[in-house]
Structures are given as C-alpha cells and as structure tokens.
TrEMBL record:
This is NitT/TauT family transport system ATP-binding protein. InterPro entries: AAA+_ATPase, ABC_transporter-like_ATP-bd, ABC_transporter-like_CS, ABC_transporter_ATP-bind, P-loop_NTPase. Belongs to the ABC transporter superfamily. Coiled coil: none annotated. Keywords: ATP-binding, Nucleotide-binding, Transport. One of its GO terms (molecular function) is ATP hydrolysis activity. It comes from Devosia subaequoris. The keyword Zinc-finger does not apply. Residues 21-254 form the ABC transporter domain. The keyword Transmembrane does not apply.
Length: 276
C-alpha cells in the first residue's frame, strides 16, 4: 500500500453482513515461478460497483478467477461471510461470471445458451422459460431467443453472455474485461446497460478493466493494482452528483474523476516498473 490510498473504504460500514466476499492475504505463485499476487486483501461490500484497474499483467484476472473458484490461491483465503457455502467451498448459486469472450455454444440458440446454467441446476426448460425471457429482456434481446450466435453482432453476443450470467439471479457478478474487444460505441452502450442493470437489481459487481474511462464511468469504487507483484496500491471512492449518462461523459466532474484515476494508475505503473 502506498500514500495514494485516497478513500478509506474500511469504515464502520464494513460489517460481515455488508461484506459479500473478502480476499484475505491472497498470494498466487504459478508453477512457472510467476508471483501473480502477493498478500492481496480486499473486502467487497454489498451493492458496490467495484472496478479492478491496473496495467497488463498486474493480476486482475488472477484475482477474479480466484474469487470465482476458477483457480486456487497459493496462500491466503477467500471468505464469503453471508453466503451458504457448498462442498467445494464456493457460495451456492451466488456468483455469475462474464468473460472477455462471450463463450457461447455456437450450435445452440440464444434461448438455450441462456438456459445452460439453469439446466445444469436441474431446472426443466419449460420451468426455466420465464426466467430466461426475463434475463433476455433485461439486456434488450427479447426478440432474439431463436437466433444463433453466428447471427448476432459482437455486442449482442456479449449481451447474451450477460443474460446467461444473470439468469441464476446471482448476488455477485464478476466481469473480466467484458467489453475490451468491442468498438467504442458498442462499448459505451453496454456500459450504460450494465449500469442500469446494477441500479435496478442492486447486484454487487466486480469489474476488471484496464480502462481509466470505463472504470471512472461505471464504478463507485476503483481498486488500482500494481504489477510485480500484483497488489492493491490505491482504493478510490468514486462519487458523482448527477446520473451517469451521456451528459456525464462530457461533464467537468467526469473529467476530474478520470484525472484522479489516471494519476493513481500512473503511480501504480511506476511502482510496477521499479519493482518496489
Ligand atoms: N496460468 C498461468 N501460468 C503462469 N503464469 C500466469 C498464468 N496466468 C497468469 N499468469 C501470469 O500472472 C501475471 C498476472 O496475470 P493476469 O492475467 O492475472 O493479469 P491481468 O492484470 O489480468 O492482465 P491483463 O490486463 O493483460 O489481462 C502475469 O504475469 C501473467 O503472465
């Protein structure tokens, strides 16, 4: 931790009831000797839109995958203070994951792709129908249930991927650079949609990105990470007085926020380069 720790998220509000997931001194040493994370600790509170921001290779995806149970920590622990934990040590049905690639099944319709997590939970197709249609409506794809992935644009495929992550009604949504491969206009539209979904559902989001602009637009908290080794080096509260919409993108407030976040990121990059 450095002196660019601006916000003080560890306040009296950080009670076990409000904490969705905690990383406790998590380190990750890969078998090739790469120390991807060193002693990373983070409390994610209910209802937060938290972005993990940092230069390439600082361990953002590794941290997210460990939280999701897709990889194990070498040392340290992940705690779920308010979830029911299954035999694998993971919170039962509480986590949705959106990857950078939409990872859809090409041979299956949009409906069947979104059905997948419910099918794996043993739900019948007819029983799942209303939930699937609700998830598709939430991403603006009500009319595309019969389409196949090859018939969709990149942005629409990503919407299907988000619907699939939301169909189980998770409490925590993990998103790993989901819009990095999309053009700027599509990316902004999806940013608007994700913010709307976050507001409407009250879901907690952890969003990995290396974009200052995206993180400043979406988040109410940005955790900046440095590389070599991957660690938290700034924890910024991001407030805005108005609604985050098209006007906000051109506002002085947004510009000032992106300046502040850029400075924190620059410092993180310098620390990583110096290996301090
Ligand atoms: N399976 C693996 N085996 C060995 N090293 C790995 C593995 N996965 C990641 N790494 C290394 O761990 C470090 C952190 O990688 P990670 O993908 O978490 O970073 P990142 O911040 O998400 O990067 P990016 O923004 O480029 O996706 C990097 O040095 C990477 O090369």
């Amino acid at each position: 931790m450095t002196d660019i720790l601006e916000a003080a998220p560890e306040t009296a509000e950080t009670t076990p009831e409000r904490t969705v997931v905690s990383m406790r001194n998590v380190s990750k040493l890969f078998s090739n000797g790469t120390l991807a994370l060193k002693d990373m600790s983070l409390d994610v509170r209910r209802g937060e839109f938290l972005s993990l921001l940092g230069p390439s290779g600082c361990g953002k995806s590794t941290a997210l995958r460990i939280i999701a149970g897709l990889g194990a920590a070498s040392t340290g622990a992940i705690d779920w203070p308010s979830s029911r934990i299954n035999a694998k040590g993971l919170p039962e049905g509480d986590v949705g994951f959106v990857f950078q690639e939409p990872t859809l099944m090409p041979w299956a319709s949009v409906f069947d792709n979104v059905y997948l997590p419910l099918r794996l939970n043993g739900m019948s197709k007819s029983g799942a129908r209303s939930r699937i249609m609700e998830a598709l409506a939430s991403v603006g794809l009500s009319d595309f249930e019969k389409s196949y992935p090859r018939e969709l644009s990149g942005g629409m495929k990503m919407r299907v991927s988000i619907a699939r992550a939301l169909v189980t009604k998770p409490r925590l949504l993990l998103m790993d650079e989901p819009f990095a491969a999309l053009d700027e206009i599509t990316r902004q539209k999806l940013n608007d949609d994700v913010l709307r979904l976050w507001r409407e559902t009250g879901i907690t989001v952890i969003f990995v990105t290396h974009s200052v602009f995206e993180s400043a637009f979406l988040s109410n908290r940005i955790v900046v990470m440095r590389a070599r080794p991957g660690q938290v080096c700034a924890d910024l509260a991001i407030e805005s007085t108005g609604k985050r919409d098209a006007n906000y993108r051109t506002s002085e407030e947004y510009r000032a926020t992106t300046d502040r976040v850029s400075r924190a990121l620059q410092e993180a990059i310098m620390l990583g380069a110096q290996g301090q």
